[in-house]
Write a structure and sequence with these properties.
By secondary structure, the protein is α+β, with helices and mostly antiparallel strands. It is built from 2 helices and 8 strands. A hairpin with a 2-residue loop joins strand 2 and strand 3. The radius of gyration is 16 Å and the shape is globular. It holds the Pfam family DUF190. InterPro entries: N-reg_PII-like_a/b, N-reg_PII/ATP_PRibTrfase_C, UPF0166.
Amino acid sequence: MRIPEDAVLARIFVGEDDRSDGKPLYEALVLKARELGLAGATVLRGPMGFGHASRLHTAKILRLSGDLPMIIEIVDAEAKISAFLAAIEPMMGSGLVTLEKVKVLRYGSQPLAQREP
């Protein structure tokens, strides 16, 4: 799989308890990214955070929260990210989606500069 040097990073912030068709939303989003042939996806679990309702979610031992922040990061060509975001819109309830332009220096085992066209 190829990824352009000038790409887009999508970050999707959801709650650990958010669901889509009975499965965790973060899992459904990663599976949709794979189905659509995106370059890859990573899910990060946050130990603490708050969102639009300002309710604090934390993993502290004395105050366990079952709805910790989950961040899904995906880097790929802008067109593929746009198609992915359109495809997941029906799955999303609340959450935050951000995009930023990135320069990909390495994808796989070789720096992009050493890859064949």
